Amino acid sequence: MRTQLLTTAQILIGCVWIFHGLYSKLLRGIPRHRAIVARVLGERHANLATNAIGLAEITLGIWTLTGWQRIPCAAVQTVALVSMNALEIALAADLLISAIGMLVLNAGFIAVIWLWATAAR
Questions:
Q1: What burial letters (b/e) apply to 84-99, b meaning 16+ CB within 10 Å?
Q2: What percent of the chain has a predicted confidence (pLDDT) above 90?
Q3: Three-class SS state of 69
Q4: Average of per-residue pLDDT values in the chain
Q5: Largest CA distance in the chain
Q6: Does 2 have pLDDT greater than 90?
Q7: CB-CB neighbours of 31 under 10 Å
Q8: In this model, does residue 1 exceed pLDDT 80?
Q9: How far apart are CA 20 and CA 58, in angstroms?
Q10: How far is CA 52 from the centre of its chain?
Q11: Is the Cβ–Cβ distance between 37 and 49 less than 8 Å?
């Protein structure tokens, strides 16, 4: 049962990153994501930066799915989420559906990431 939960968590974490990188950013499925990037980095850099962020998110998803170096993987994910959330709240709060909701959801996501990363030890 424990192995199944860890595998499920690993797949869930990886798929969240891949979904937001591919659908939300690269395919522009959620236009608000590009608008937030434009607000933070400027309209001039928004397309390139959104694509780069999308590729980075897909990379995090693939890294998670491989299960390689779980602790560093979790650390990078944590830094990425905390950094993105801080920038979004500081510079684009009006574009967020709910800043508090985002923080609660991402705190839970980070908890799942660290449970997955440390449970295998």
A1: bbeebeeebeeebeee
A2: 96
A3: coil
A4: 96
A5: 50
A6: no
A7: 9
A8: no
A9: 8
A10: 13
A11: yes
**Which tokens sit at 10?**
């690993």
Q: What DSSP character marks residue 1?
A: -
End-to-end CA distance of the chain: 16
20/26 Cα distance (integer angstroms) = 9
User: What are the structure tokens assigned to 41, written together?
Assistant: 């980095």
Query: Which of 45, 7, 12, 30 is CA-nearest to residue 95?
Result: 30
Instruction: For residue 32, give every residue at least 6 positions away whose Cβ sits within 8 Å of its Cβ, in sequence order, or none.
Output: 95, 97
- Cβ neighbors of 97 (< 8 A, separation 6 or more) are 32
- Look up the pTM and report it: 0.93
Q: Which of 45, 27, 46 is nearest to 35 (CA)?
A: 46
> Residue 104 corresponds to which amino acid?
V
d(CA 87, CA 29): 21
For tokens 């609660």, name the residue.
Answer: 104
